[in-house]
Amino acid sequence: MKFGIVGTGMIAHFHAQAIEAMEGSVLHSCYNRNPEKAADFSERYGIKNHTSLEEFLADPELEIITIGTPSGSHLEPALAAMEAGKHVICEKPLEVNLDKINSMIEASEKNNVTLAAILNRRFNESVVVLKDAVDKGRFGTLTLVEASIKWYRDQAYYDSASWRGTWVLDGGGALMNQSIHIIDQLIHTVGPVKRVTASMGLLTHENIEVEDTAVALLEFENGAKGVVQGSTSCWSSTGHPAEVNICGSDGSAFLADEHFKVWDFKNPAPEDAYVHANLMATEGAQGLGANDPNAINFTGHQRNFEEVVNSIKEGRKPSVDCLEARKAVAVITAIYESAKNDGKWVTVN
Question: Which sequence spans correspond to the domains of the chain?
Fold first, then answer.
């Protein structure tokens, strides 16, 4: 299938590399209203470039577009693409508030096109194994779970672009931008969140509107109790891995990025030997993207794109569709509402 990319910033290069690595897919074109940026990106990848969104979408050869613009500017190109009959894969978050996301979902249904998200960490082998263990009931009664994102961004990161650290275009800070993939992993593996209470603050950065540190307590619909802690103010020379930790009456698993620190169950299973041989963390492992947003690879994006392409060809919904993408934004939105209202309990919608 032929892909086009909206936006030509840092994340667009991960999209381009992932598409180029896919068998049977072609990076076809790009759009950026800035002529120099559009030309530079197209020259690097040998593709068509457009500075008009209408012209970009009018190309009959274009089948799927990926969106890599700032978070709060996903709605316009997504709606335009779906109205033009194109399938859409959108970077995280799908949008920065639920009203915008709901509009995108309605447009997808109205135009009978796929709207999917980049939830690339779901495709890590370790996350697949972890979810399988939860689904099989290996943890027994789920008790305590946690998403922990102790990352670092210096002031220069926020100063590098006027949209960073704004509610309108970033949608939030350490939670909506940096922590959303890990919060998604927690929801994806443990299940829906019923309500939250939270606190947040701006502790170490200047001239931004949003939080650089937040903590929340979560009550899940299955009865589990959870904690989310996310920050861009946790300095480390190597970067702390992002963690998803799950405990239950019959087992515990602590996942640090792509490898487990703990994999321990009351009732052993055949797959445990494979996990211990291949998926355990080594001491001193560095965090993926913890200190540097460029320090990730495109493998997860490639698997994400391949899942969406396969779902379109097979006439089914992708596992990372718009309804799945909405879940993490709904939880984070509830956390923000709670924190702005002195920690009152807020129901997740």
Answer: 2-117, 124-290+328-340
